[in-house]
Amino acid sequence: MKIIDRTILKEFIPSFFLALFLIIFVLLVNRIFELVNLLIGKGLPFLIVLKLFLFNLPFIIFLSIPMSVLVATIMTFGRMSSDFEIIALKSLGINPFRFVFNLTFFSTILFLITFFISDVV
Q: Is the distance from CB of 92 to CB of 31 less than 8 angstroms?
């Protein structure tokens, strides 16, 4: 793996996990409000509402992974564009598809993992 590829992945991975946690948090807060409404409004027992919450966690996680890949990709290439790193890489003669390839490969790996695990869950 070349230095450019490692640099792009080092910037992408923290952005991915930050976006993943933020999106999961937002979706969980939304779901918690719905479940509190069931708990208080409908009078359901707490254990049933807790089970509903736990059963919704895998769906929320699998829903947030593609969104976080998109956000992390935009953040990574947005920062590279604002610091003129993309122009510097192009002026060095590096094809733009070369530094997009690793993120595409990483995203494909995440897709396959999510696809096969979501079938089990």
A: no
Rounded-to-integer distance, Cα 117 and Cα 21, Å: 19
Q: How many CB atoms lie within 10 A of CB 64?
A: 21
Nearest to 77 by CA among 89, 66, 67, 64: 89
Pick the range with the lowest mean pLDDT from 75-79, 108-112, 117-121: 117-121
For 64, the 3-state DSSP assignment is helix
Angle between helical axes of 46-82 and 96-120 (0-180°, round to 10): 170
Q: What is d(CA 67, CA 81) in angstroms, rounded to the nearest whole number? A: 21
**Per-domain boundaries in the chain:** 3-120
In angstroms, the CA 17 to CA 9 distance is 12
CB atoms within 10 A of CB 12: 20
Q: What is the mean pLDDT of residues 14-41?
A: 92
